[in-house]
Amino acid sequence: MAKRYVLGIDTGTSAVKAVLADLRGVEVCVRTETTPVESPHEGWSEFDLQTDWLRVADAVRHLLSDTGIDPEDILAVGVTGKGWGCCYLDHELNPARKGILWNDARSAPYISEWARSGVLSEGCRISGNYFYTGDCGPVTRWLVDHEPETVQRVATVLFPPAWIVFRLSGKVKLAYGDASSLFDIRRRVFSDRLFEILGISSVRDRFPQPTECTELAGEVTHEAAQATGLKAGTPVVLGEVDVSACATGVGAVQAGDVCIILGTAHIVSICLDEPIFEPEVGLEMTHVDGKFLKLVPPAIATPNLDWYLETMGHADRAQAAAAQQDVFQYLEGQLAEIPPGAEGVVYHPYLSPMGERCPFTKLTAKGNFFGLGLQHSRHHLLKAIYEGVAFSALDSLTACQPRLTRVMLSGGGARSGVWAQVEADVLGTPVQVPAGTEFGARGAIFTALVAMGVYPDHRTALGAADSHGRTFNPDSARHALYQEYFGLYRQITRHLWDDWDLRAEILERARGDAARARESKT
């Protein structure tokens, strides 16, 4: 019997998704399971590897049950997931500790020192990557210095997508994109020099050699088949890291294409024919069909909206319920009444524990509203949040000065027509929101289709797909106004630069005083 479906798995930061699609990449069914993020200390961000796998197994099992599709009809499984961070396995290939996520900030002191000493610049010249606190290299250095007993037990270092590939297939494999932060991007191998300057040469031999994302990692094992409901022997394709998979899923596979992910992470990626290594911000990685991606990712996007709903959105929830509307639907109507520029309110979306990472690295950077007056409502603040996130994307793109051909928008924030229109007006270019919802898993599905020989390359696969969605065209008058506000947005950042450091120093002293006061009482 001819195979009719492909399964895509995307292990995100706060949820895992299992997506079933036909052989044109069209979604048939999606199943989502939430995954907890743990923060045992301030600035730490971790996840339980076994829980991640169990949630994947649950999602796949329920997906098959919901659709009634025979696992025999599934051609292959493609995998993607949260990038960077690290998974550490012992000699039995069990977790040696909790996994560390991309938004972890524990390595901040190393980043500060390496920025001063030139290590970050040297590393960028090798890999195209300007290290951030949640990258595997800095995180592993912290582990070497602070958890040497854990390092002694570690036999294999993987990245989160590779952990799921291992649990499905029993094979230890890495894709090129997974390895990007420690990669010599020209030679497509791990860089011994990078391990040396980061002080982690002692664990160099614990990283598997990476390979192409279209490689078959193995087949679904009998154990994985029992856990997921898949047929044992189903091919498992290595796949791309989530940012690359998402760019593929929305169609950003030609030079000049831009993919903006409005999700937990705010990923701005530009498809290139060759790596450019400039400016020394963001990171570069291999992409599909021999292309490269330049990532200039601000730290976060939708958590700014989450923060608003948690702190100021109680009345919105109540009013939406009274109107029998979803809260997001209700907010769309409210925001349509707020003029561009939120009547002078400018917002900087720097709420992440890691500060901001693109287009500048500033660990002490924090969010703020500028220009508040008595005439402003909470919805002015929310409109300013949408605009501030769009300004941060423009700020990152401006640093690279790319020649744009198309801009594709994805992530949870792309479901908002208001937000998508703000992005188009701020960028001054049409913004496409392709059909579908889970573009990371969709990218993994296309990679699986290419790996299995259904299509010769990703560009052909995407051409065969029905991905027509919505297009948001910029308004010239709104774009001109936003250009003025963008200049103000950047100028405020320069004015606050030293003030952020002063704030951090005051907080540190206050915490020290409070700790000493507690000790004196005991």
Explained architecture:
The protein folds into three domains: 1-83 and 213-250 and 434-455, 2-Layer Sandwich (Nucleotidyltransferase, domain 5); 87-158 and 176-210, ATPase, nucleotide binding domain (Nucleotidyltransferase, domain 5, 2-Layer Sandwich); 303-404 and 475-507, Nucleotidyltransferase, domain 5. It is α+β, with helices and mostly antiparallel strands. The N and C termini lie far apart (74 Å). The protein has helices at 49-67, 108-117, 119-127, 136-146, 148-153, 160-169, 192-197, 222-228, 242-250, 303-312, 314-322, 327-335, 378-400, 417-427, 439-451, 458-464, 476-521, and strands at residues 5-11, 15-22, 27-34, 46-47, 74-81, 87-89, 99-100, 156-158, 183-184, 189-190, 216-219, 235-237, 257-262, 266-272, 283-286, 292-295, 346-348, 368-370, 406-410, 431-433, 470-472. The protein is globular and about 65 Å long. It is built from 17 helices and 21 strands. The mean pLDDT is 93.
What average pLDDT do the residues reach?
A: 93
Count of individual helical segments: 17
What's the count of strands?
A: 21
| Order of adjacent strands in the largest pleated sheet | 15-16-14-13-19-20-21
Per CATH, the class of the largest domain reads Alpha Beta
Q: In this structure, how is the largest beta sheet organized?
A: 7 strands, mixed
The total number of structural domains is: 3
Q: Between the first and last Cα atoms, what is the distance in angstroms?
A: 74 Å
Which fold name corresponds to the CATH topology of the largest domain? Nucleotidyltransferase, domain 5
